[in-house]
Specification:
234 residues, 6-stranded parallel beta sheet
């Protein structure tokens, strides 16, 4: 049997983005196992939705400081398993999430898949470390959410690579962990790395503009493009 694959070679750009998947850009309810499984087994890649504004944010990041033909690289590092790769790949293509490299967890049987995304956080840290070691000249932005271990993993990454991490973004999706996450992000900011704990992607876009990660004109232009596509501008 033969199969075809793609080799992704990142361009030599200034920035590199590492993003979680579930509840970072894909609505997944990771903190609630019942709701997570309900979504996973009753919806497909076409019916599921990203958070509002997140694709615009990611597209702006992909083009920051570079040209359309040489976008900044994205790495999608998740505790979700390779069983879900085709599902996630189709979702990102449908919603025009910037193309990138997927680093997921090892394949599991059906019984283990019921707990998908709940483990392998230690290996997630190791995967991120390998990326930063492979691209030592890139400034790195970490994007995740508060449903599981992203804030703590990213805090550890900042401790190991304080000069390489440019910013940390954590989506606020889990009430019970809010204070702990705020404390962790406070520690990251104390180390000199800008952080944002946010609920809406528009907040993240404005923060990216504020710290110089996204040019204001580019953010405004992208917004106008989306309004035109949605029929909001004549």
């Amino acid at each position: 049997a033969k199969s075809a694959g793609r080799i992704f070679i990142p361009y030599e750009t200034q920035y590199l983005f590492i993003s979680d998947i579930d509840d970072t850009f894909l609505i997944s309810h990771s903190a609630n196992l019942r709701k997570r499984l309900q979504v996973l087994f009753t919806q497909n890649a076409r019916s599921r939705q990203p958070f509002e504004g997140v694709v615009r944010h990611y597209q702006l990041l992909a083009q920051s400081g570079t040209t359309p033909d040489a976008p900044n690289p994205f790495f999608f590092v998740s505790s979700s398993e390779w069983n879900l790769y085709e599902y996630i790949l189709e979702f990102t293509a449908i919603h025009k999430v910037p193309r990138g490299v997927f680093l997921l967890s090892q394949l599991k049987g059906f019984s283990e898949l019921l707990k998908t995304g709940q483990n392998n956080h230690g290996t997630k840290f190791a995967r991120i470390v390998r990326i930063l070691e492979a691209f030592p000249t890139h400034r790195v932005v970490l994007l995740g959410d508060s449903s599981q271990q992203d804030p703590y993993i990213y805090e550890a990454i900042v401790k190991h690579f304080p000069k390489q991490v440019l910013a940390v973004y954590i989506r606020d999706v889990f009430d019970k962990s809010r204070q702990k996450v705020q404390d962790v992000l406070g520690q990251i900011e104390a180390a000199g790395v800008p952080c944002l704990f946010f609920q809406h992607s528009e907040e993240a876009i404005l923060h990216s503009v504020k710290i110089g990660l996204i040019p204001p004109a580019a953010a405004e232009e992208k917004l106008q493009e989306q309004e035109i596509k949605a029929g909001g501008v004549a």
